[in-house]
Amino acid sequence: MILKSSRKLSVKRMQKNSSQISEKYKDALVAKTANLQNISFAWHLMNSEDYERQVKAKGDMKTFDFIHMIQMIYYVDNLADTIKFYHSLLKNNGIVVISNRPANCGSDTLWKAYKKELWVDSITDRGSSEQVITCLKSLGLKYEEYAIPDAFDISECFNPNSQIGEHLLNFITSKDHFYQSFTPEIRAGMLDVLRTKCSTEKEGGVFYNINLSCIFVDA
C-alpha cells in the first residue's frame, strides 16, 4: 500500500500532478515489468484522511504486508491518529515504513527560519523524524530508524542570472517564481540561510543537506 500526501495544499494542482504521475508510473513501470503483469492492483488516488474515512465507512479493513509513507506525514492533520490507523492495517509480521526529513536538515532549517513566508496556506508544522519517533514511543510501537545522508549541488542558486538556479529555488521554497514571490530582503536572507546553515561548501560547490530518515515500524 502506498500512502499519498494528505493535507489540502494547492489541492487542484496536487490532484492533477498526482494523477499524471500515477498514470506515468502505471504505464511506464508497472505495466511493462514482466513479473508484475499477472498481479492485480487497486489504485486509490486520494489523500490519507479520505482513504481512512472511506475504509471506516465501508467497514472494509483490508490488511497489508507492507505500507510505505514516503514524504507524506508533513501533511497529515493528526500524526498519532494517522500512524495508529495505518499500523492497524498491517498483517502479522507486516511493516510500515515512514520516511521524512530529520530535524536540522536543510529544508527543516530553512522552514524554521522563514516559516511565515513558506507554505503559508498549507503546513503549520513540518513534522520531523524526531516527532515521529516521539509519537511511536507514546503509542508503544516497536521501530528501527536508519539515516540516509544525501545532498545536492545548489551552487547555481547564488547566480541571479541562472535559470537552473531559479528552478532550484522554486523547488526548495515550493514557489512557482522565487524572485517574484519574496521581497529583496527576504530573498537575500533565504539565500544566506541556504548557504551558511542548510548546506556545506566543498569542492567549489554548495551542497544542500537533504538527509532522510527511514523508520521501520513492526506490526
UniProtKB/TrEMBL annotation:
User: Which Pfam families does this UniProt record tie to the protein?
Assistant: Methyltransf_23
Q: Which InterPro entries match?
A: SAM-dependent_MTases_sf (IPR029063)
Q: What is this protein called?
A: LOW QUALITY PROTEIN: histamine N-methyltransferase-like
* Annotated source species: Gymnodraco acuticeps (Antarctic dragonfish)
